[in-house]
Amino acid sequence: MSTPLKIDFISDVACPWCIVGLRALDQALEHLGDEVQAQIHFQPFELNPKMGPEGQDIFEHIAQKYGSTREQYQANAENIRQRGAELGFVFKQGDRRVYNTFDAHRLIHWAEGEGKQHALKEALFTAYFSQHANVSSHQILADVAQKVGLDRTRAEAILTSDEYTAEVRELEQLWVSRGVSSVPTIVFNDQYAVSGGQPVDVFVGAIRQIISEQSSVVNGAQ
Question: Are residues 58 and 95 in contact, defined by beta-carbon separation less than 8 angstroms?
Answer without folding.
Answer: yes
